[in-house]
Design a protein that fits this description.
CATH architecture: 3-Layer(aba) Sandwich
Distance between the termini: 33 Å
CATH superfamily: Vaccinia Virus protein VP39
Number of helices: 9
Oligomer: single chain
Mean pLDDT: 97
Largest sheet: 7 strands, mixed
Helix content: 40-55%
Strand order of the largest sheet: 5-4-3-6-7-9-8
């Protein structure tokens, strides 16, 4: 076995070990629970813009984009723009004409100004509107066109109903070998007091939507190996790999 393949095999053994280590998994859940009280995800920026993601999940998205080399990344939820600019920067490194479609029901003026002034703005397309609005989805479909490799990242309204509808609307864009990523599935595993006055919580969140979606959609499965590799993630059960066109 050549050194490159040997290293890959070592990594696979590491991941298998993490997947089977219940103590590490429990510690990870405890760490996430406690760090959430300090709004940990808000502490980081990407190329100058707040990204509001765990660094571990950003590493996962980097690996997926480099592996898949999508023509288009669709992201629901724009906020300050750091996440879509992160995807745009990865597409810049991949090369080609790839771009990110960012969808948000309210793209605030100051955030839009910063995104549009960014050096990577040429790889960003912004759509203001609800991600479950048929007109918005039609606009996305027109922007994507035919025969494109698409990666989808869902991170907007976190209620079960909304995410389930997003899954139904955006999963057709994803073809075999690519991914549909659902963020903040960890809400299902967090204490109620961490949710505050939000309309979602345990029993009503992205993870419960994923579970219902997978009951009938057999084109996707949860990538448990990726989840085990990360150990710390906001998306347990949220990395869905497309296994069939």
């Amino acid at each position: 076995m050549n050194p490159i393949e040997e290293f890959k095999e070592e990594v696979l053994r590491n991941i298998a070990g993490l997947a089977g280590d219940k103590d590490v998994q429990a510690l990870s859940r405890i760490w996430i629970r406690e760090i959430a009280r300090h709004r940990y995800a808000y502490n980081f920026t990407w190329l100058g813009r707040p990204v509001i993601q765990f660094p571990q999940d950003m590493m996962a998205i980097q690996e997926l984009i480099w592996s898949i080399k999508p023509d288009v990344v669709i992201e629901t939820g724009v906020a300050h723009g750091g996440s879509i600019l992160f995807s745009a920067s990865m597409l810049e490194l991949v090369g080609g004409e790839g771009y990110v479609i960012g969808i948000d029901i309210d793209i605030r003026k100051h955030n839009r100004t910063e995104i549009e002034a960014h050096p990577l703005s040429r790889r960003v397309r912004l759509i203001e509107g609800s991600s479950v609005d048929d007109a918005v989805v039609s606009q996305v479909r027109e922007m994507v066109g035919e025969g494109k490799k698409v990666l989808v990242i869902l991170d907007s309204n976190h209620t079960h109903e909304h995410v389930l509808r997003e899954l139904e609307l955006f999963s057709p864009f994803v073809r075999e070998g690519s991914y549909l990523v659902v963020y903040d599935t960890l809400i299902e595993d967090m204490p109620v007091d961490l949710v505050g006055d939000r309309p979602w919580g345990p029993g009503n969140n992205p993870k419960t939507a994923v579970w219902e979606f997978l009951e009938t959609n057999k084109r996707f499965k949860i990538d448990k190996d990726l989840e085990a590799k990360l150990s710390i993630t906001v998306a347990p059960d949220g990395y869905l790999v497309c296994i069939a066109d």
